[in-house]
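Action item from last meeting closed. Structure (268 res):
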């Protein structure tokens, strides 16, 4: 059998073919009896003492075997599989599962798995109850409204993350420009880095302006295809950008429709 296919082959210090570890529990227990000898000159007290030492040593061997069997029975040698399964869980559930490992020594593998699943199920129910209570506090009275709220919340978070990313790029570009100037880089390189910083700053500014003026479109929906002239008069735009009927249009909110029209981008 290929050793790579055996359980525990990827663990350092474990020998799958022998089923032993390089470093066992109480690894130095053998030293206590390594030089022990029974002779005819031993007194009764000496013999009793040596027998007690041997009994202690045997108890350590029993505990060592018990711990090794615990690792095998609870499938802890399957380290990679256990890690992959663990990272599929939510962060709070991972933390809870790790805390529940303390009780594994009192259960068999099947009992502990059933216990952990019931604890996780109870936790999920509490989270769902807390979410429904939150919906009720903010005035949501139907599952359809709750679904729309979660969708809008995800969209807002997406736009917020995009703006924060642009802002971070702007700060990084400015820092690179300052560092390059401090190190005495030639003017052409410095100017290129400064242009990069200015470009990132302009992008961040444009995104911020689009969000800061989103209320104007809601207040004046009839002026959607117009722009203001130099004298304040409203002039009709030459090429009105239409996204109605495009793929993904029905998923957009009013704010997002206005943003797409101003930026002249399609929903998808």
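Sequence:
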């Amino acid at each position: 059998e290929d050793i790579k296919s055996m359980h525990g082959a990827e663990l350092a210090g474990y020998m799958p073919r022998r089923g032993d570890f390089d470093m066992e529990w109480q690894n130095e227990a053998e030293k206590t009896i390594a030089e022990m000898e029974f002779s005819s000159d031993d007194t009764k007290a000496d013999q009793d003492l040596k027998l007690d030492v041997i009994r202690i040593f045997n108890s350590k061997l029993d505990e060592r075997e018990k711990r090794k069997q615990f690792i095998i029975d609870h499938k802890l040698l399957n380290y990679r599989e256990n890690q992959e399964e663990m990272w599929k869980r939510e962060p709070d559930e991972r933390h809870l599962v790790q805390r529940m490992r303390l009780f594994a020594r009192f259960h068999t593998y099947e009992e502990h798995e059933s216990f952990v699943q019931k604890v996780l199920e109870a936790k999920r129910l509490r989270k769902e109850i807390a979410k429904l209570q939150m919906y009720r506090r903010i005035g949501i009275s139907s599952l359809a409204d709750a679904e729309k709220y979660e969708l809008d919340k995800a969209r807002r978070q997406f736009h917020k993350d995009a703006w924060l990313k642009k802002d971070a790029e702007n700060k990084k570009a400015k820092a690179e420009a300052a560092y390059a100037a401090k190190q005495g880089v030639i003017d052409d390189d410095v100017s290129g880095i400064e242009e990069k910083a200015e470009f990132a700053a302009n992008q961040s500014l444009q995104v911020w302006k689009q969000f800061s003026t989103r209320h104007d479109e809601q207040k004046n929906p009839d002026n959607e295809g117009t722009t203001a002239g130099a004298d304040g008069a409203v002039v009709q735009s030459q090429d009105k950008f239409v996204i109605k009927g495009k793929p993904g249009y029905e998923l957009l909110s009013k704010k997002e429709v206005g943003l797409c029209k101003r930026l002249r981008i399609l929903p998808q």
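Note appended to the action item: Residues 72 and 78 are 9 Å apart (CA to CA).
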